[in-house]
Amino acid sequence: MDNLQEAREFLGLCCNLSEEAFSLSANMWTTNTFRKGEKYNVSGKICKTSSFIKTGYFRTYKLDTNGEQRNIFIHAPGQTLVSFVSFVQQIPCDHDIEAITESTVISISYDDLQELYKVSLEWAKVGRLFAEFAYKLVEDRFMGYYDLSPEERYLKLMAEAPEIFNVVNLKEISSFLGIEFQSLCRIRKRLAVRKS
Q1: pTM value?
Q2: d(CA 61, CA 43)
């Protein structure tokens, strides 16, 4: 399947673009591969592309006051990948996005999207839907885990994305969940004992 068809399918999950509107973007999509540890976007730089993850996993992280990396999001295949505020406002972002496995993304540039917004009301709607999606992602991440105990956070992630434990190391997951690595190991051990 070529990247154009894949972009069409990804957009079909959130937007009901007509074939005519989608065809306006036909020459604007690119496919990029990232090695494990390679950055999609770097703190202090402006995010120039919005992407869909075809394969692999990424993490968004920030440095805390002690200089420790803290994962804010883990992005899985089928999700969008963008430093949203940086992309929309074209200002430097305050976090890094990094591949945590070998990954492939399908991307469109900020400039190309602006052209599409100008010539198509349907594409302008896509921009609004992306904004709504980004807001929902942030709200789900922070509100969805806010009142949960560490064990409940772990169980929630297990229920929502069990495959993540097969491809992302436990240290990255513990940072994402806001649980100390040793505490997460104890939770996993305790739950394993309960199952047996």
Answers
A1: 0.83
A2: 9
**Residue 30: strand, helix, or coil:** strand
Q: Which residues share a beta bridge with 106?
A: 31, 52
Give buried/exposed letters for 163-190 (b at 16+ CB in 10 A, else e): ebeeebeeebbbbbbebeeeebeebeee
The candidate with the shortest Cα–Cα distance to 177, out of 146, 154, 149, 159, is: 154
Count of positions (residues) in the chain:
196
**Percent of the chain residues past pLDDT 70, beyond the cut:** 90
Tell me how far CA of residue 185 lies from CA of 96, 100, 104, in angstroms.
26, 20, 31
Tokens of 57: 């996993």
pLDDT band at 58 (very low <50, low <70, confident <90, very high): very high
What CA–CA distances, in Å, run from 141 to 120, 138, 158?
32, 5, 15
Which tokens go with 8? 């069409």
Q: Are 79 and 40 in contact (CB under 8 A)?
A: no
Instruction: Summarize pLDDT for 59-68 with one digit per residue, the tens.
Output: 999 988 888 8
Token output for 125 = 């709607």
pLDDT digits (tens, 9 = 90+) for 99-113: 999 999 999 999 999
Copy the structure tokens of residue 22: 């989608």
Decide if 18 contacts 60 (C-beta within 8 A).
Answer: no
